[in-house]
Write a structure and sequence with these properties.
Oligomer: single chain
Helix content: 40-55%
Order of helices and strands: HEEHEHEEHEEE
Number of helices: 4
Strand content: 15-25%
Length: about 200
């Protein structure tokens, strides 16, 4: 069996590349090393340009932050100087509310219970009878009965038209099947009456 033998017939002077202007002969590995070195230098230059740009942005944003913080300090100083007049105005508002309350209590008063009972009797339609009255601080709960459901609506209208009562609301109504009596609950509030 024959062996293959490789023979390089190129003269050694031709195996190296030469730069005529440098008059230096380099091998292929040296060229590769130079290209890699040039690429590394270019990469470093691009990165330094990017870093410089980034550092300029950081400096600019730092200056903006410093300006904003100085404006914030100035505004805090203004808000502190405004706090005293605001406290004075708040105190004046509270004083006025107290005076208004005193005047309302002087010119308006809660109706007397006896007057309210007389008014309740006056607005009560015929055919409605009261079962229970529950007087609370600002309102009344009424339990009543009737045979005709139309009188419930009339009773609520009369209550809302009264000078003593307002906001009459029907809470519930139930009809007894054996006796045809309708039991109902109404809640309402009473008005302050001007003297």
């Amino acid at each position: 069996m024959l062996k293959k033998i490789n023979i390089d017939l190129m003269p050694t002077e031709k195996k190296t590349v030469s730069f005529k202007f440098l008059k230096v002969k380099l091998s292929k590995q040296a060229y590769f090393a130079i290209i890699v070195l040039v690429l590394l230098i270019l990469f470093q230059m691009v990165n330094s340009i990017r870093i410089n740009s980034f550092s300029k942005q950081v400096r600019r944003q730092t200056e903006e932050i410093n300006q904003a913080s100085s404006q914030l300090k100035r505004l805090k100083g203004i808000s502190v100087s405004l706090q005293s007049p605001l406290d004075t105005l708040e105190k004046a508002r509270k004083d006025l509310e107290e005076k208004i309350s005193l005047l309302e209590n002087y010119f308006y008063r809660k109706p007397l219970w006896s007057n309210m009972l007389v008014e309740l009797n006056a607005v009560l339609p015929q055919g409605v009878w009261l079962n229970e009255l529950d007087f609370k601080n600002s309102g009344i709960s009424i339990k009543a009965s009737t045979i005709d459901t139309k009188t419930i609506v009339k009773f609520m209208d009369n209550l809302n038209k009264s000078i003593y009562f307002k906001n009459a609301k029907l809470l519930s109504s139930t009809k007894d099947d054996k006796s045809d009596i309708v039991n109902f609950n109404i809640s309402l509030s009473f008005e302050m009456v001007k003297i």
